[in-house]
Amino acid sequence: MATGPQGYPKWLLNCKQNIGDSKDWNVFLRELHDAIQQQLTESHVQYFSDLSEPEKELFMERATKALEGGTSYNNLMKKVSLLMDQSLNEEVSRQLLEDSPIDTKSDLIIENAEEGALSLLKKWPEMKEKLHVCLNQPLPPPLRQLAWRLYLSNTKVRKQYVDLLNTNPRAAISQYDYEISQKCEQLINSEPTFSDLRGSVGNFYGMKAVLSYHHSAQKTKNRLRDVDHLLVVPFLEVASSSIPRKEPPAGRVVALLVEEFETLMGGRPGFVEDSGSDLHNEEVRAFIDKVATMLSAKYPESVKNIVDKFSPSKEKIVATETGNQALLREGLMEICRPMLRSLFVTYLNRDTLLYVWDNYIIGLDTPGFSTEWLAIVLVTILGLTKDKIKEATSPAMLEKILKTESCKLTVPQIQYEVKQYYYKDLFSMLTRDSKAAIPVLDPTQALHPPWRHWYNDVIPPFTKPQDRRKANVTRQIERERLAQQQKDAETARREQEARDRRHRLRLYGFINIPKSKEEEEEYLKLSALDRQRVEQERIKLEEQIQEERRRRVEAERRAAQEIENLRLEIAALKNQKPPTPAYSPTPSVSSYVSRQLLAPPPSRVSTHAPPPVMVVKEVRTPTPVQTPVEQKNKIVADFLNRVLLGLNKVAHAEDQYVEKEELDRATQGYLIQNVKDIKRAQKQLFGQHLKPGEFEKLSPKEQQEKSEAMIKLMQTWREERREKELAQDKDAF
Prior knowledge:
Layout: H1 10-21, H2 23-42, H3 53-67, H4 71-99, H5 105-123, H6 141-151, H7 155-167, H8 177-190, H9 201-218, H10 226-231, H11 233-238, H12 251-266, H13 270-273, H14 278-298, H15 300-309, H16 321-341, H17 350-362, H18 369-384, H19 386-389, H20 395-406, H21 411-421, H22 423-430, H23 465-507, H24 517-575, H25 589-598, H26 604-608, H27 613-618, H28 628-652, H29 658-686, H30 700-732
């Protein structure tokens, strides 16, 4: 497969380039930018770069959610689907034409799509939740390795193991290492479902190393449980492509096995771990009740068979409904506990077991999914083997038949039952918090329209080498023709630009180039029109200049007249000697009128245009006369000042200003403290000091709530300070 420089398939890089160049992508980016800018404004953040990385990611997710379902978002999704479809189809067609593969077109499509998905998951591991669309599907081996690694990742466990190997390798080996080795060898050689591991030195050493470290990490003197040996097997099956058969596996492979195994063991539900504690027994009983309810609803025949096999054999009692339920729980307890402890290892064949584990692992991050899935698998196994369970004559025989027949179950059988009864509920549980952004892979449950281009394209026919060489020559000639055509077009464009440039220069008289008769006549006409246009512009400019001169002369004449009038008025004021009025604290109306008569009103020009500087310097401006309003305001102000003076004398006595100054200082201190409390309350409620106008932007309800909260805080702080002052005064006494 063709791979790009970044490790991505070339068809995926081409698809990305085409999407980035599309109009729909640019429209979506503009709306996304506007949505982010709106969030920044609402959060009072100036620049997007001021945010931390988690905050940037949160803003991006919110903006994308806001655009999801809109016109630009839907258009972009359609464009992405179309371009991905086309790019993948072109890559597959190229492989069929040039590489001559033995795989079918469908196989090539799946392989290329799988390669693209793997490259994206390696780049962005947090997108592992997209694997939820693989529900009820067995994962391909490369995708299964990556999915298990992502969901069972635990860097702390890996670091502890690697550090222990580097510092004290002996501590990574159990004291029962020899016994563990014997048990591993016995299981690999005797268990029918482990036939793929038989004869592999790498699988044996990998299994022994993981279990030995697991037991040593427990720091217990008890021996390792038998079921723990079984739970390593699926990890060996998945990593089989990286484990050699003739020698022990590499250290990094063992470290990965240890990391995945320890993570799985640490996250097992209580009914799977089943250590015998009261808590685990309670979880087992609750799980068995759930299985009994589901089994009674879907497979009543299996319920009857189990009740019959576990009913008392010596005396037949008329069983009530309560008795049947008790017998059913007893029977399921005996049957299901071994299957749950081993997570169906040795009860299912390799492919079916890995299919069950695939769906179990991709739901580890979803609360409640593991319990639901394991219950569904148990019920499905009991339902599919109901015909064989009838042949059992005792509980021991029933368990033996169940283990034998369950190994014969295939993936399609369980898939069909899950799809028929449980798929919708399971998928809604997985996608409860986030809607899947890519279509469902189960064709029976998919709601998206199928891709259209696979059946539109015709697979190129098989060609001989000479035909392919001839086709290559034809393509090369076509490429050269197109290149020459582009070169000729560029030359013609440059020549046309040169002709246009010469024509413009000739038109304005910058160059004198020999012309033909027709060109000469055209040039004369254009020159005459140009001269006529220039003459009209000149006449128009001259008229504008004359009009401007006329306006200036008129303005100068008016200014001279106004100056002369001002000089006459000033001279009249100098010659006139008005009588000096006697002082009166409350001037009469007559005195006001007389003062107004002594001050002549300013002329119209003086109110709009200031007099020349030299005139202002020569004339002394007379003292302005107060208007009635100003006189009234002055009288009221004097009255209030006298009232304030009287109040001060009453409050502080005559010539006793010490107490007043102390009160003023105390009041000033309270005001300053009040301002500090307000700023402190703003910092505690809003996280910052509010700028002028920010509080008014809040809604009336928010303003009221914030004001009440600030008042409560300030009252609390005042009481604390008062108590502190009282305590200090008490200590002083």
